[in-house]
Amino acid sequence: MTGPLKRLYIKTYGCQMNVYDSERMTDVLTPLGYGVTDSPIGADLVVLNTCHIREKATEKVYSELGLIKEMKQEKALTGQAMTVVVAGCVAQAEGAEIMRRQPAVDLVVGPQAYHQLPELIARTHRSRGERLAADFAADAKFDALSSERHPTGVTAFLTVQEGCDKFCTFCVVPYTRGAEWSRPEDTILAEARSLAEQGVREVTLLGQNVNAYTGGLAKLVRALAKIDGLDRIRYMTSHPKDMDDDLIAAHGEVQELMPYLHLPVQSGSDKILKAMNRAHTADSYLKTLERVRAARPDIALSGDFIVGFPGERESDFQATLDLVQAVGHAAAFSFKYSPRPGTPAAAMPGQVAEAVKDERLARLNALLDDQQKAFNAAQVGKTLPVLFEKPGRHPGQLSGRSPYLQAVHCEGPADLIGQIVPVTITSAAKMSLAGQVISAPAMS
Ligand code: 5AD
Ligand code: SF4
User: Fold this and answer.
1) Kind and range of the H or E element at 161?
2) 367: which residues sit within 8 A by CB, 6+ positions away?
């Protein structure tokens, strides 16, 4: 790092508590690239940490804000923005009234919300037009992409949504990719039709928060399922908070929607989930899965896990192992927490030693591996529809996928590629299944 990229001016009024709070605010803003400056002139971010204790204190804040407003206007003349935040007890007492009286104020935050400052500031920046710019760019990008697409295989990815508004405290996506944005349904359907005409049988709908798709992901899935030739639909990645009733119902009703759900939980400890700003608990996550399993009992479950998040103790990690036990995964992705500059968790106390992260990751992976092997082994003897995608590693072999996204290897003629064929599973390993084609496929 070559020093702060953005200048932060914090003015502290009143008591020792406010001095302490200003330090905390500086701490949570440092990872976002803000460094303290001693003058509001030219600052990128101005925070007035106010005090309510004496009379006239509020008026003093308004007169200070009058001066800040002029500096903000001056900065705007050079094409640069200044973000003005009112924090502290006046913010608590006056609330939105401050923004009404002084429109130069972008944000009013009470003392309970300081840990959310990075999120609140990012949201403010978005609302100032950066979001629109991003939307236009995304639109143009998709137009260019969809008209040029020439899929090479029988499966394809289809981006339906970008960006994220969830602000998990470990994650850079809300800062780098911007706000949640959904592609219009008609352009998605047009692209899917074109893919199907070119021989694609399976699409995976992509988005950082794909199940937050505007207009409802279930509705989109139902529309896609009607496209001729498109026989399999998958989607990823989803957020537990956005698993709505309609999407869950679709898993029971739409046969083209494959029985596989990647639903990251990150941790099994409610304390850690709260510090991650995940907006769900271990219990609410398990309840969501119960509803999904009620709709589609054979669904394969997958998740993302982070070990060694700041403040994670052995008992928190144990809660993650307990949750993994309770779920039973077909697949999973696990990561050691890595502090990403620009995210709130990077500045949190209680960073976990690398050796502890390594050791926890190994224990978690051992459990997840066992579950994956057990899930695969449970398919032996069953007959599953397999979409053959490509030739296998050896001559005369084919490689495809089961509905549960398992790789399946078989002996078979190359003209089965692109077809969905019943296969009896004869053996299972951690990463794949082997099987035998049991009948000639129906014409397709
Ligand atoms: N450290 C470790 N894992 C992370 N992920 C995202 N950010 C971090 C980070 N800072 C993981 C989460 C997410 C997946 C895509 O990557 O588990 O779901
Ligand atoms: Fe958004 Fe996923 Fe990142 Fe959370 S982890 S902020 S939901 S992209």
Assistant:
1) strand 161-162
2) 321, 324, 325
Q: CA–CA distance from 103 to each of 70, 109, 194, 388 (Å)?
A: 12, 15, 49, 61
Q: Which atom of ligand 1 is nearest to the CA of 172?
A: 7
pTM, two decimals, is: 0.80
Angle formed at CA 20 by CA 19 and CA 21, multiple of 5 degrees:
90
- Assign 270 to helix, strand or coil: helix
Which tens digit of pLDDT belongs to each residue from 115-166?
888 888 888 887 775 433 333 444 444 454 454 566 678 999 898 998 898 9
DSSP 188-257: HHHHHHHHHHTT--EEEEE-TTGGG-TT-HHHHHHHHHTSTT--EEEEE---GGG--HHHHHHHHH-TTB
**pLDDT at residue 104 is higher than 90:** yes
For ligand 1, what atom is nearest to the CA of residue 345? 10
All structural domains of the chain, each given as residue ranges with its CATH number in brackets, are 6-137 (3.40.50.12160), 140-376 (3.80.30.20), 383-437 (2.40.50.140)
Most informative mutation of 239, 242, 273, 277 for ligand 2 (most atoms within 8 A of CB): 239
Distance 357 CA to ligand 1 centre (A): 14
In the reported structure, the alpha carbon of residue 177 is separated from the centroid of ligand 1 by a whole-number distance in angstroms of 15
Distance 184 CA to ligand 2 centre (A): 22
Give the single-character DSSP code of 47.
E
Cβ–ligand 1 distance for 264 under 6 Å, the answer: yes
The CB of 176 under 6 Å from ligand 1? The reply is no
- Tokens representing 47? 């925070």
Give me the count of residues in the chain: 444
Q: For residues 45 and 120, what is the distance between their CA atoms, to the nearest angstrom?
A: 12
